[in-house]
Amino acid sequence: MSSIEIRPLSNTDGTQKMLVDLLIGTVAAGGSVSFMHPLAPEIAAAFWSKSLQAAARGERVVLPAWNREALVGTVTLLLDCPPNQPHRAEIAKLMTRLDYRGKGIATRLMEEAEAVAVEKGRTLLVLDTAKEEGASGLYEKLGFALAGEIPDYALKPHGGLTGTLIYWKRIGSA
């Protein structure tokens, strides 16, 4: 999809609403991104507010995918690691709007997150995903190695436990 661009977020009311809608839609569709369904708009807004404040402090990078002026996906690169882990970053909250899934947006977001991590001197990426309905196939296609599974790690958005798969990938000049 050539009209998709990954470009910086602007901190406007319209952008905030799109971020909130993306998170609520992801959770409603069963996305295991730390929240339960139904997700209240004020909780989603508080999450994004904190996330963007952390990004302003350099603790993370929020990468959005746009189709013209419509926000169609995001991924977050967590950079605020303990002092003995300055070489790694963590991928979090990969989300694509339902009507844009299957069009390569998640792949482009992940490739951009990896490029930013390399640019910031990181040599190891880690992430986790739900065993059921997670994105393990995408991560494996992108070269991530499965470290293992933690059973019954989290609640699924609509209830019930799911295991979590832990992945890693060496990047840059490790």
Give a quick summary of the entry.
This protein has helices at residues 13-28, 41-56, 105-119, 136-141, and strands spanning 4-6, 60-67, 70-78, 88-96, 124-130, 145-155, 161-170. Helix 1 packs across helix 2.
Contiguous uncertain segments of 5+ residues: none
How many helices? 4
Task: State the order of secondary-structure elements, H for helix, E for strand.
Answer: EHHEEEHEHEE
Structure classification = alpha+beta
Total individual domains: 1
Provide the CATH top-level class: Alpha Beta
Largest sheet: spatial strand order: 1-2-3-4-5-7-6
Strand content: 25-35%
Oligomer: single chain
Keywords:
7-stranded mixed β-sheet, globular, Aminopeptidase, 174 residues, alpha+beta, 30% helix, 33% strand
Q: Any chance you could write out the topology, listing elements then pairs?
A:
Blueprint: E1 4-6, H1 13-28, H2 41-56, E2 60-67, E3 70-78, E4 88-96, H3 105-119, E5 124-130, H4 136-141, E6 145-155, E7 161-170
Parallel strand pairs: 4-5
Antiparallel strand pairs: 1-2, 2-3, 3-4, 5-7, 6-7
